[in-house]
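ok so I'm stuck.
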Amino acid sequence: MKLICLVASLIGALTWGTTAKAENYFCTKKLDSLPILQNGRIKPLYVHASETLKNLTGSSKYDKLSAVETYCLLSSKRLGLPSTINLVSKIEHVELQKFLRVEEQKKIDYESLLTQFDALNMEMRSIKNNESYQKAISKLLNNILLYNDILNGENWKVYSPQTSLQANKELALSESFQSFAEYFTEDKVIAQKNVTPLDPFGPILERTKNEFIRDHGDHYLIELTYAKLNLVSYSLMVTCLALASFVLLRNYFKVTLALSFLTLIMQIVLMTLRILVSQRAPITNMYETVMFSGSFALLMSLILGHLKQANLLVFFGLIYNFLSLMMLNFANGMLSATIGPLVPVLRDNFWLSTHVTTVIASYGAFALSWILSNYVLIKKKWFKHLYQIKEEQEIVQLNYTTLKWGTVTLALGIILGGVWADYSWGRFWGWDPKETWSLIVLCIYMAILHGRYTSWIKNDRFITFTAAAFLSVMMAWFGVNYILATGLHSYGFSEGGAIFLGSFFAIQIAIIILTYKKEKITTA
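replied:
not stuck anymore, here's the structure
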């Protein structure tokens, strides 16, 4: 209570200026680089505040305040610092809108939600045979708890070596952190107030950052660079420019090539920074696999495009990379960019870097063949005046090449996965859903390759089969995670992608049906 009164007096000293200045107080952008402990991982406050605010509201900013300023001010309520911040949650589920009586606004502030927590909890328990409604309430309840933790100053921990590390150097690093609420003791604040009367809190936090860097280095700041560079958005912008240059500057392919290499370099830097931050290969969740597959497909299109003298292949590589980057930028409910701790089975970097990388690389190759196939199907059906048989034959050969690369890398990935499974779980194969669907994908593509090699499958059917075959890839890649949600590969599961996957299947099947051309049977 004394600490709260002390804070109130300090705020009074600041009220000579505007209210905004009093509100910001020590919660400024200077705290972006403050090391904090959250979910067992040390990260800059900027990263955690941005992710948390986006999770709560859908945006990483509040009014004119940055994520760190907003997050810090909310936590500072625990110290008695007043604030007019009122975060609002979007309510998308129709039945939840009715329950909260926000059908028109489709949103509600968290202060109101705090008072309805018990009612929401009872409503969730009473739900039967409505899984989507239950999930919507469960997610909202988790967000309310998160918001309450922020208000109580319990959601982030600050480095405090005086309390543990100096007393016992054998303690784990995590033991050297205290919650924000516990960190600011009355004695600590009073002592600093004698030195900096107007702001005792800012210097204390600056000192704890310097102490952490002194004791453990500044490696954690790589993540701050990674987050602030925003390379995913810039890569998307450059990819769009590359696609536009290919269409508008057909006689200046070198421009497209330069932009393609630029976006590839940016994505390599992006993945390198992510590796440095996480200390592992960037293929441990759905966000990273989409990112890696898009980059690999672009790299593959550049290499094969050069070897085969096929500029069009580079265009298709850019298209798939564009689709991947669109998902990374806008499918936030489905793909999470958060870097979290790994489950024990994934902590073997050698097997993670070989097995998963080769499998996802194969998905990138298959995605390239999928775009090639749909290009031919759509062009032959709806753009006949632009269709050329010579171009189709060229695309069939490129398609065949990408399938060979994809099938070989997938087979290698499955074998490596079996070895890893034997090492981790004591068996080479267990018919786990992910394993089974990977084998199904391999069998489908091997059958198509064999049919093409023996001339059983002609050009028209080859194009149709390769377009349809990618549905099996999507099932192995996304379907097992979003629909089946079972098996030993549970560490890769995600939520929120069932609608995306259903829409993808419906559109692809519709294209195949609409472009299907029955073969004419002639009799002697």
